[in-house]
């Protein structure tokens, strides 16, 4: 007999269909995102979809290529001191902000200090190793660290390294998100919340010739079926996170193309451990969280929701990562062991509210988990929550559990420290383990990969015991687009980059 939860697969409902108005100009690229982004300020943004928009809006100090290698962007080159406590950047000389002011060393200093000190910053944990930033001259920046921190350069390839105009930052303050001014290939034109974000090409961009669209229109569409419908009807040109179950059908459509890439991150259930909303049982007793994990059939989730294409997981790193620890294999579903853990915790049943973004995929995952854990007495109530609202609630710690993914970073530290180090701004769980923090600090100081692996193995062992996050799976980033688009190359961070992307006539 099939497990009861598998019967849910056929009953999972689709969302209401809606279409976006077509853009008439050939120079307009229309992009469908899974959600409407939260902020368009690099220091406060937390949503994955926001990174798609910010990638075109705000250049970074460095970037990554399609293999995950760190490459120059605003910094033409960089050099570490022998003890890895000083990072010196040499900037390109031809970059300007959208307001015409230069991207110089003073601007880099302003941005890094803003990320470290702003009350709205969610980047503090990512660059907390920075002690001081010095503008040596117009094109030279010296970053001094409190201690060796190898992951810093990787952090500067994401939002912590995105550079805004100091003039605009000073003028707008916390309202910068309403009219962002950066130095990317596209500049901000307008935003209609829950509808569209529009960017237009910045002619003074140093690499403007590599960007072939005059205007970008981003639309949030939580339902993957809606995104695909709009792609098929040419209301969109490119969509992210195509449902795995639609891949084969799209491949057969000559008008469309599919581009998948293996991701760096994870999806999991984060429990509030020390927050105001923490569940008195699940949030306070690790044995209950262990029971929860043991009751889940991760492979069934992959099979039912992702057509078997998601990689099951129980760690912050995917199996493809050199930092994945084989000593901790993904646990098989074990109801007997799960019930034993419930008894160990001294409870027969637990009521747990689970916040879940409104997209169909994560709703399906949540419904399967709900059915699975109910068999051991954990009664999950699913609360569909618009992503921006969910993230706000999560940052305040006013929740019991949530299902949110992390897109992943090229350095392993950035898959753990921002979410789980004591006091980190993005530590939704409000979890704190000083032993873990000590291990992570040592790992950041090591340049040797094997030595770092040994430290992350210790970290994983702690997380397997405490389980502030019950890791579930690692998914592919699957993009679909019109076959008329050429030059699109997905990167493992899952972020849309439009360099050399064009449309065939």
Quick recap of the structure?
With 505 residues, this protein is of the alpha+beta class. The protein has helices spanning 48-57, 105-117, 152-155, 166-172, 224-232, 247-251, 286-294, 298-306, 335-344, 360-374, 387-396, 417-420, 434-444, 449-466; strands at residues 28-33, 62-64, 70-72, 75-80, 86-91, 130-137, 140-145, 186-192, 196-201, 215-220, 238-239, 256-262, 266-271, 311-312, 350-356, 378-384, 401-406, 469-474, 476-482, 485-486, 502-503.
Explain what this protein looks like in three dimensions.
- The protein is α+β, with helices and mostly antiparallel strands and 505 residues long.
- It has three domains: 26-41 and 173-262 and 477-503, D-Maltodextrin-Binding Protein, domain 2 (3-Layer(aba) Sandwich); 59-167, Dipeptide-binding Protein, domain 1; 264-474, Roll (Dipeptide-binding Protein, domain 3).
- It is 27% helix and 22% strand.
- It has 14 helices and 21 strands.
- The chain has a seven-stranded mixed β-sheet, sandwiched between helices.
- The longest helix is centred in the last third of the chain and has 18 residues, at 449-466.
- The chain is globular, with a radius of gyration of 22 Å.
- 53% of the residues are buried.
- Mean pLDDT is 92; it is low at 1-25.
């Amino acid at each position: 007999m099939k497990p009861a939860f598998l019967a849910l697969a056929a009953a999972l409902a689709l969302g209401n269909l809606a279409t976006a108005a077509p853009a008439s100009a050939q120079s307009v690229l229309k992009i469908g995102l899974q959600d409407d982004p939260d902020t368009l300020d690099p220091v406060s943004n937390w949503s994955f979809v926001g990174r798609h928009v910010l990638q075109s809006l705000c250049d970074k100090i460095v970037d990554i290529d399609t293999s995950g290698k760190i490459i120059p962007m605003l910094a033409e080159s960089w050099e570490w001191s022998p003890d890895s406590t000083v990072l010196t950047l040499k900037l390109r000389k031809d970059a300007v902000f959208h307001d015409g002011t230069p991207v110089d060393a003073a601007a880099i200093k302003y941005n890094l200090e803003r990320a470290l000190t702003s009350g709205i910053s969610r980047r503090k944990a990512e660059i907390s190793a920075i002690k001081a930033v010095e503008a040596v001259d117009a094109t030279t920046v010296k970053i001094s660290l409190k201690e060796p921190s190898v992951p810093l350069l990787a952090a500067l390839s994401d939002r912590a390294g995105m550079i805004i105009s100091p003039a605009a930052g000073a003028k707008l303050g916390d309202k910068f998100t309403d009219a962002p001014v950066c130095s990317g290939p596209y500049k901000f034109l307008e935003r209609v919340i829950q509808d569209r974000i529009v960017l237009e090409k910045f002619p003074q961009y140093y690499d403007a010739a590599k960007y072939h669209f005059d205007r970008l229109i981003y639309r949030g569409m939580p339902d993957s079926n809606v995104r695909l419908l709009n792609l098929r009807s040419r209301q969109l040109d490119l969509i992210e996170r195509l449902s795995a179950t639609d891949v084969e059908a799209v491949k057969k459509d000559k008008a469309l193309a599919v581009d998948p890439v293996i991701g760096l991150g994870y999806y999991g259930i984060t429990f509030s451990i020390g927050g105001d909303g923490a569940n008195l049982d699940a949030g306070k007793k690790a044995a209950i969280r262990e029971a929860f994990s043991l009751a889940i059939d991760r492979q069934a989730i992959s099979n039912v929701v992702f057509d078997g294409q998601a990689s099951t997981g129980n760690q912050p790193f995917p199996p493809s990562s050199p930092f994945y620890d084989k000593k901790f294999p993904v646990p098989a579903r074990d109801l007997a062991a799960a019930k034993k853990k419930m008894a160990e915790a001294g409870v027969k049943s637990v009521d747990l509210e689970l916040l879940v973004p409104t997209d169909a995929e994560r709703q399906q995952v949540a419904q399967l988990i709900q059915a699975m854990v109910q068999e051991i007495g954990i009664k999950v109530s699913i609360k569909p929550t618009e992503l921006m609202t969910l993230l706000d609630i999560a940052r305040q710690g006013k929740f019991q559990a949530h299902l949110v993914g992390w897109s992943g970073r090229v350095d392993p530290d950035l898959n753990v420290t921002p979410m789980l180090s004591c006091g980190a701004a993005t530590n939704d769980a409000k979890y704190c383990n000083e032993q873990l923090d000590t291990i992570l600090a040592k790992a950041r100081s090591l340049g040797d990969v094997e030595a770092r692996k040994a430290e992350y193995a210790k970290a994983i062992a702690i997380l397997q015991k405490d389980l502030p996050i019950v890791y579930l799976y690692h998914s592919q980033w699957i993009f679909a687009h019109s076959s008329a688009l050429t030059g699109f190359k997905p990167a493992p961070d899952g972020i849309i980059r439009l360099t050399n992307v064009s449309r065939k006539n």
